[in-house]
Recover the amino acids of this structure.
């Protein structure tokens, strides 16, 4: 039986390819903690997670001082047991973003290692339900963009075969949001989906007011209309509109999703593999949503989510926001508006190790050995 013998940690900080703004924040950078786990057979699994510009050093400290040392000597195939043990080791800081993001970097590395040793791509190892996912683009729908810019991007994506686009909303005046949605809908027609995302900007009363506007333009979903912790208000909102309510990117445990699903407070689950704590809990949330007949449309991380979406039957959309181009040698495979899961063993991400080495944040590197 192979054992974990070596763990390497580092973080790279990636600037966004375009300016990214929404109703509550600007995406300044993508801190990307990375974990390299090597077993006694010499096989290595690589995992990662991310922040949008803050908290990365805290994640690295938790990995180095608390979590990574507990991996040494463990059987890397016992992914569920390792995840539970690490969660318990950090129970005083769970549920929370820092802990979940650190767990995700380890968990994705263990899944990568498992898939590589089994000579299987992640999407098959995790279920193999599909071989492609329809794409919608968020990269041209940021809040600072003018209606003309939104239209140009949506038309370009439609010409490429994309099936939809997301428009950020949350202006103080509803008329500003309407001008954006009206311009895009008139340009793309009715056979192209428009998603909206308020990034938790509204109160319940304002969100209810805006749903009539969204219904007018046949919007595919209303994402994060309210604060993610306010399940009750989401429940009220969901019952007052025909627009599907989407939540999940700001949730960090399966129990939070369970509460939304039990109360019928959302009809689209946007579970994020990094923020939920890795592939292990992501699959649990996806299958839980399936039991409630709810779609899974994950947030961000398309290079990893394409395989997870293709692993489960109730996935519906894959969000297009490229973010690993600077540290990979090839991007996610796409054809006619669909994302295609990698067929190679592991997560299917072609890391550029030279670029990673050059871009590693100073002071973020550390290595642990079983012998040491």
């Amino acid at each position: 039986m192979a054992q974990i013998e070596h763990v390497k940690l580092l973080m790279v900080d990636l600037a966004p390819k375009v300016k990214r703004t929404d109703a509550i924040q600007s995406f300044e950078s993508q801190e990307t903690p990375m974990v390299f786990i090597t077993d006694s057979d010499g096989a290595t699994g690589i995992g990662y997670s991310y922040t949008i510009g803050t908290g990365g050093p805290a994640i690295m400290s938790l990995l180095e001082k608390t979590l990574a040392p507990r991996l040494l000597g463990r059987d890397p195939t016992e992914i569920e047991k390792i995840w539970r043990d690490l969660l318990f080791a950090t129970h005083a800081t769970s549920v929370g973003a820092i802990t979940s993001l650190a767990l995700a970097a380890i968990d994705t590395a263990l899944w990568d290692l498992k898939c590589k040793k089994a000579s299987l791509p992640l999407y098959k190892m995790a279920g193999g339900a599909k071989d492609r996912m329809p794409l919608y683009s968020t990269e041209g729908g940021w809040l600072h963009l003018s209606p003309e810019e939104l239209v140009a991007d949506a038309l370009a994506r439609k010409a490429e075969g994309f099936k939809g686009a997301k428009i950020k909303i949350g202006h103080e005046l509803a008329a500003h949001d309407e001008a954006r949605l009206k311009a895009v809908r008139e340009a793309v027609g009715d056979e192209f989906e428009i998603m909206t995302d308020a990034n938790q900007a509204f109160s319940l009363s304002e969100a209810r007011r805006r749903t009539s506007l969204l219904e007018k333009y046949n919007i595919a979903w209303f994402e994060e209309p309210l604060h993610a912790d306010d399940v009750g208000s989401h429940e009220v909102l969901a019952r007052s509109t025909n627009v599907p309510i989407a939540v999940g990117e700001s949730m960090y445990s399966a129990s939070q999703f369970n509460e939304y699903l039990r109360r019928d407070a959302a009809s689209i689950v946007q579970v994020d593999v990094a923020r939920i704590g890795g592939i292990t809990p992501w699959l649990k949330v996806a299958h839980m949503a399936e039991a409630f007949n709810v779609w899974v449309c994950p947030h961000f991380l398309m290079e990893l989510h394409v395989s997870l979406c293709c692993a489960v039957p109730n996935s519906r959309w894959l969000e297009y926001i490229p973010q690993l181009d600077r540290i990979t040698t090839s991007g996610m495979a796409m054809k006619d508006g669909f994302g295609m899961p990698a067929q190679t063993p592991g997560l299917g991400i072609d890391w550029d190790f030279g670029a990673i080495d050059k871009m590693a944040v100073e002071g973020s590197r550390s290595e642990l050995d079983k012998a040491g």
